[in-house]
Write a structure and sequence with these properties.
Helix content: 10-25%
Order of helices and strands: EHEHEEEEEHEEHEEEEEEHH
Oligomer: single chain
Number of strands: 15
Largest sheet: 6 strands, mixed
Structural class: alpha/beta
Number of helices: 6
Distance between the termini: 50 Å
Radius of gyration: 18 Å
């Protein structure tokens, strides 16, 4: 017997001011709920433009405490619609300590749990180490009324270790709010290689762990405030993959979308019976995995 969860994906561009953008998010969440979504997932740092293109101390003013105004706002949205809602916020923990934090709200509006981004990039136009302290909550799934969700954030999606640990702790689904895109000077072939690698590595997590994987990316062009680069065109392509890595849905690379996708949660049990990767792991031989490098 199948257990179907209707998952809403909100792939959108960012508008200003912030409060107007939050109202746009509310409308998009409501659009998913009207289509029957029980779980709605937003993209990374969805309240604001992607401010990490530059290193600017003024941007820390965008951070909020948790709980705070945004958690109150999204709690109200989740409870009004009766949905589980995955958000991504810029958390002010203390003066000088800030995190990139996913907050999950249950259908009654309570905070079911949060996850602080563990892997922090530092690349041209993605200067996140300037803003974010690495997470310290570990890879802990979040229990909700729909099941146990393994929520991570963007750069975490490239690392098999986090996905594996979430799965080993009973996550029933892996979820990645994301903000990733193309730099304007890259040729078309390189852009497609990057996008394919991004999708492939996450579908690999689905296969290796026998779990559905959902990645929700933003879309649209955002200029570099410093003018040093050509800005970022976020490539969208939000997707849902099943536990064999099969692509259930992929969004466009240039359009806003509010889409509801059905995910059969019982397929993981069946897939793990025919592909028993957890049974065959050589856990007695992996002791060196906690080292940086071995030569």
């Amino acid at each position: 017997m199948s257990r179907i969860i209707k998952v809403g994906i909100v792939q959108q561009s960012v508008t200003l001011p912030v409060e107007e953008n939050k109202q746009k998010l509310r409308q998009n969440i409501e659009a998913c709920a009207k289509q029957g979504a029980q779980l709605v997932i937003l993209q990374e740092l969805h309240n604001t433009p992607y401010f990490c293109q530059t290193e600017d101390t003024e941007m820390f003013a965008l951070a909020e405490s948790i709980p705070g105004p945004s958690t109150e706002f999204y709690s109200s949205v989740a409870s009004k619609l009766g949905i589980v809602l995955v958000t991504s916020l810029f958390e002010r923990r203390a003066a000088g300590i800030y995190h990139n934090t996913a907050v999950v709200f249950d259908a009654d509006g309570r905070v079911a749990g949060k996850y602080r981004k563990m892997h922090i990039p530092d690349d041209p136009a993605y200067y996140e180490k300037f803003y974010f302290t690495p997470g310290d909550l570990g890879f802990e799934p979040i229990d909700t009324s729909l099941g146990r969700l393994g929520v991570m954030v963007c750069w975490d999606q490239w690392y098999p270790e986090g996905a594996r640990l979430m799965a080993m702790k009973g996550a029933e689904m892996l979820i990645y709010p994301t903000a990733i895109g193309w730099e304007s000077t890259d040729p078309a072939e390189e852009k497609e290689r990057q996008r394919c690698a991004w999708e492939t590595v996450q579908r690999g997590h689905a296969v290796a762990n026998g779990l559905p994987v959902i990645a929700v990316n933003r879309v649209g062009y955002e200029a570099d405030p410093s003018g040093v680069t050509g800005g970022i065109t976020f490539w969208g392509n939000s997707f849902v993959a099943g536990p064999q890595g099969e692509l259930i849905y992929r969004a466009s690379n240039d359009k806003e979308e509010n889409v509801v996708v059905e995910v059969d949660m019982e397929r993981s049990e069946n897939v793990r019976r025919i592909w028993p990767f957890f049974r065959d792991r050589r856990i007695d031989k992996y002791g060196d995995i906690d080292k940086r490098f071995l030569i």
